[in-house]
Amino acid sequence: MNEKEQVKQYLLLFERLNAQAGRLTKILLIFLIAALIFFQAALHIRDLRPFISPVDRLDGIPVKERNVKDWHD
Length: 73
Fold this sequence. Notes:
Elements: H1 3-42, H2 49-52
């Protein structure tokens, strides 16, 4: 096999790899966008919120600075 045929073979392999990687990237991007939309919609359901986001359990009453006297002790 001469050098030109070898270069052509490498180019064909690269083109195939490029096409497969592009297809995989598109599928992954579509999956991630669908997952984002699903989780954002699920966060609006109050019963599902604690299972999806651990931060929701940390939600409490906001503290106003002027009502807290012992911050600088």
